[in-house]
Each structure stands twice: as structure tokens, then as C-alpha cells.
Give the backbone structure.
Amino acid sequence: MSFRRDFISKPIFSWARNVLPPMSDTEREALEAGDVWWDADLFTGNPDWSKLIANPPATLTEEEKAFLNGPVDELCAMLDEWKIFWEWRDLPPEVWDFIKQKKFFGMIIPKEFGGLGFSPYAHSEVVRKLSSRSIVAAVTVMVPNSLGPGELLMRFGTKEQQDRWLPRLADGRDIPCFGLTSPEAGSDAASMIDTGIICKGTFEGREVLGLKLNWHKRYITLGPVATLLGLAFKAYDPNHLVGHEEELGITVALIPSHLPGVSIGHRHLPAMQVFQNGPNWGRDVFIPLDYIIGGQERLGQGWKMLMTALAAGRGISLPSLSAAGAAYAARTTGAYARIREQFGISISKFEGIEEPLARIAGTAYCLDAARRLTCAALNEGHHPAVISGIMKLQATERMRFAIDDAMDIHGGKAIIDGPQNYIGNLYRAVPVGITVEGANILTRNLIVFGQGAIRAHPYLLEEMNALRDDDRARGLETFDRAFWKHVGHTFTNLFRAWGRSWTFGWFAPAPDAGEARRFYRQLSRYSSAFALAADMALLTLGGALKRKEMLSARFGDILSELYLLSAALKRWQDEGSQKEDFAALEWCMASGFRTIENRLAEICANLPNRFVGVLLKFLLQPFGARVLGPSDRVVHQCAQLVLEPSAARDRLTADLAHVEDDGGKARLEKAFLLVTATEEIARRMHAARLHDVAEAVKKGVIIQSEADRLSAAHEAVRKVIEVDDFAPEALSPIYRKPAEVHQFFQELGEQRAAS
């Protein structure tokens, strides 16, 4: 008999069982999906930096490098984004054929099934390069390699299903899509009304046990061209043909689009992006039970399967696209600011331009660092669900701010659309990334901390499982052990966080990292402060914390910053602690520390238990939030990274597409190199107060060859700052010849009548 267990733990156990909020099946399965990784270290309040530093960086095989430098570059050269979204409204047929021929749809499918068998990092690198050339092509390629039939078949499919479908998906004979979202159920999958009724029916001439499906899905990427639908629905067994339960839960199955009753709808136009996306329906579509992914034994396990797959896929596709978008913005906006003059000087000299430019450069550094670190974890076989949520949320949000800054600096150049506008379509695409794979509002307010607090906390999940154990005695025994470990952990963190906060982190643990050592110390300090504040919130609010969405969001912001800043430090270390890149690292740290301190202050001010709020402020922020963000010096130095050709600029914007054509980006790169190469010549002319090149040659300020180079630079700049214009009839049928207008409206009326 244990006195502690029976007289102290038991009353607490009984009280906690009564107040523990109910958990739906979808919530439980989402929590159980994937695993934890570095996020668990951050939750301890005392991260082991040696473990992070020792983690091998993500690398590519020679085969993967050859694919990036071969087929991916070839595909980029075939793409013309203006024609894709303005003239064709789709990828041209030759691009579709090339994508299938080179097995872009089968990057993640193992070689034994005819795929390329690439690593998550290679998948990420392909998406990154394509995204910097064409959003439409990138989305088209990344979706079949993310959450969809291929990923689900690889993880959960039967051997027969894998042998049948994976080779067809790998070589493009089948184009997949996945139907989850419906008009009634967006982020709340439990609300879906799409059904599958278990019954007997005729399939391919024989009577079998199967499912009669009825559904309506929308926003389905690749849906309009898909030949194989992955479908999520709720399965029911009213006649008890497979068991005693009637409601079996969310299930996923494969639906060939040619089956009777399947209707593929017209196309959506998401934010003027022309990747294939649209609705589909099913009316009394019958499939045998072996079309359920994983077979009959996977009935009702669909949500867990989806969440497990999403734990990996959500950390690759959109983060890769977003990191590419930030890097692309850094490269193009830095170049444009460098060559564009106003009031007789380059606009890059204005501090008002330097500030957003530094923000773009710092964001690009941070996002790519986090992308690489996450891919390294995935390469090692981890499926970090919380980190994947952080990556999707933070990458798409920060890309939004980076593109907004890029638009501000470019001004009218980025607003006037046409073949020479290299950034406007990326700006239009931003809301798509914000919304899909879990809307960012939901992810920030409910998922990052809500899931992280349970999965990554050292003891909370064990305590919750003990409280829900049907065997009360066993549950009490487990709870007793976990609870008192939790208490000890909390008191240890209290004194650790107090000491580190009051000494400003100077004695916090940190590896020998040269100039960056002070940053590790601060992250150790903030990690302990976060862990203590989280425990205090959980103690005082309990299950009510999940309804305190603003508090949860603030905790999520801190956890996100801790992960992203860890990634930036890891990148700095992996790249050899390049002195030239230190300004970007310093900008990331100052910005992140400001966010952490502000969120801690907001948590202390808004905790419902005011005694605990005041106590936390005393322990963690006795002098308030003191970090103001990057200094003017850091802003200036960070902006300079993208204003001159250099190895630092190339590292910051590595692995983007570079196509030699007459497009707007190619013109910009050419002008940038010419302007920076002739800077000293231009400076001599400026000192001599001369503006005419011929006069400067005549007066001996410059020689003829220098004049020719300067003239070439001026002409290149003129071409960059040009914007497109169009004849009226090119934009509207109203201005075309009467016969053409009549034909246009007649065809439009016929299309509407047909639909």
C-alpha cells in the first residue's frame, strides 16, 4: 500500500476524472497521429542543444541532384506563367505529358512500384525550384506527392492495392486527387455528411459486399482531371453485415472516376490561380470493400490515417512553396531596389526601403532554415505532427508578409500585370496557402499549442491516458507516477525559469557557438519560461484552456518561435557559421525574441487566475517585455545581403529556378549584374556632376569601353522598369469586331445552357 497514492493522489485522480473534458474520436485520433521530435525538447524547458547540433542536415543523393538539374530544370524552361494563367488557363499538353513521362507524380512512390523513391528533402527541393518559376506547376506536382492516394496507399494499403495502383500513379496513367472538404465540413471533418452504406451490390458482373457512396466534395485540387479519387466519408452498417456497430466512423477509399454515379464538376478559380481544382459528386456509387484503403479492417480508421499522413505531408509541400516565395521575394526585391532610382539615388539607400527589405531577407533565411530542419527529421523517419502544423502556419503567414513587403517596394511595377510582372501572381496566390491544409486561424488558435501541450509535454499525455483508463486501479497507479513526476518537473522549471529570467539568461546552457552562443542562452531562458507558463495555465484552467483560444494562440506563437529560431541556429551551424550571414541570423533572433517576450507579457496579463498571472510576471518578466526587435544597425546589415552579388546572397536564395529567357525576372537579373558591375563608373560620373555618358567620355572622366558598359546597364534598367500595356481588344471582347463579339457571346450562351 502507498500512502501517497491512496491518500494524496487518489482524491486528485477522482477530481480530475470528473472534470476532464470529453474528447471526440476525431480529436483523439488527431492527437495520436505522428510523433514528437525537437518540440518535445522545447517543452521540457531545458532543451539539449547537443542533440540538435548533432542531428545530420538533410542531404540529396546523386540521383536526386541529377533530377533537380535535369528534368526539373527542363520543366522550368517549358513554363511561361503569364501564358499559363492568362492565355491557356492551364498547363499546356506538352507540360502535362512531360510531368507524367518523368514521373513527377511518383516522386515519393518507391522504386519497386515504378516511382522515383525520393526522400522528403528531394520532394521539398523539387517543389521549391518549381514554385520559383510557376505556382501552377508546383501545385500540380506537389499535391499527388502530399496528402492523397499515393501517400495513403504506401502507408496503409494492402499489398494487392499497392501492386495495382502505385505503378499507375507513378507513371501518370492515373491522376489522383483527394476529396475531404465538403460544403458542410471544412476544418471540422466530423461534420461531413458524405456517406458510405455497407450493402450487397453488383460490381463487374458479380455480387459482392461493398459500400453505396453518396458525396459532394469541393475545392479538390486536380479534381477536374483526376482519374482516381481518394474519398473520405462516414461509413455506416445499418444491417450489421460486418459487425455489431452501425456508425463505423470516417473511412477512406479509392474511387475510379469512371464508375457509374461519379460526376466530375467544372473548375473552381481559386484566387485567379489556374491549377486544376473543382467539385465532384457521387450518387449511389457502389464499390467493393476491398476498395477501402487498407481493406475492410481499416473501416472507420480514416481520420487517423489522414492525420498520420498529414503529419508528414503538411511539413513539406506548403512550407517548401512558402520558403521559395520568401527567397524569390528577397532575390527579386533586393535586385529591383538596387537598380531603381528615385530622387537621383538608388531606392535601396532609403531607410524606409531597408526596413522591409531586411524583413524579407530575414524571413527567407528563417523559413528555409526551418524547411531544411523539418526535412531532416522527415528523412530520418520522424512524423512530427506538431512541427508540421507549425511549419504550415508560420511558413504561409510569413510568406504573406514577405510578399506584401515586396509589393510595397516594387510599387507600380508589381501592380501592372503582364508578361514582365514577375511577382504579381505570387501575391494573388498567397491566400490559397493560408487557407488550405488547415486554415491558419484554426491552426494558430487550436492546433499548435492544443496538440503540442498534450503530445510534446513530458507527462500530460500519460496523465490523460491514465484518467481515461477503464481499469480504475491501473489508471490510478499510472497517474500517481506521472503526476508526481509532473509536480517535480514544474518546481524544477519554476526555479530554473526564475533564475534564468532574473539573470537575463547569461548563465543558461549553450553550446560553444562563437557569436551565436548568446542566442542559445536566450532560447534556453525562453524555453524554461514557456514551459513554466504552460504548466501554470494547464493547472489553473485545465480543460477550459482549449476554449481560451487567444491564450492558446499566444502559447502557440512562442512554441513556433522557439522551433523556428532553433532551426535558424542549426542552419548557421551547418553552413559553417558564415560571418557574412550573421546579420540575417541576428535579425531572426531579435524579431523572434520580441515576439516571445510580447506573448509572455500578454499571457501574464490575460490569465484568468490573476494571482498566477502576477506571479508569472514577477518570475519571468519583472521588468516587462524588454526586447524591441532588430536594431537599425542590424536592419541595415541584413538589407545589404540582397543588394550586391555575393555568396551570401546566393546562399540566401539558393536552389531557385534560373531560366535564360526574355522574361521579367531574367531581365532583372541581367540589369542587377550590370548595375553593380558599373557602380564605380557611375560614382565617378556623379562626383564630376555629369549625367551624359558622351560628355563624360569627352571630358576624360570615363573611357569609351566604360561608357558602353554604363549605357548597357542603363538600357537594361529601362527594360526592367517597363510595364506591359495591351490593346483594348486584347483585354475585352467588347472592343473586337462585331462579328467576333456576336460569336463570343453566342458561344458563352451555349456554354451556360449546357452547364
The first strand starts at residue 176 and ends at 179.
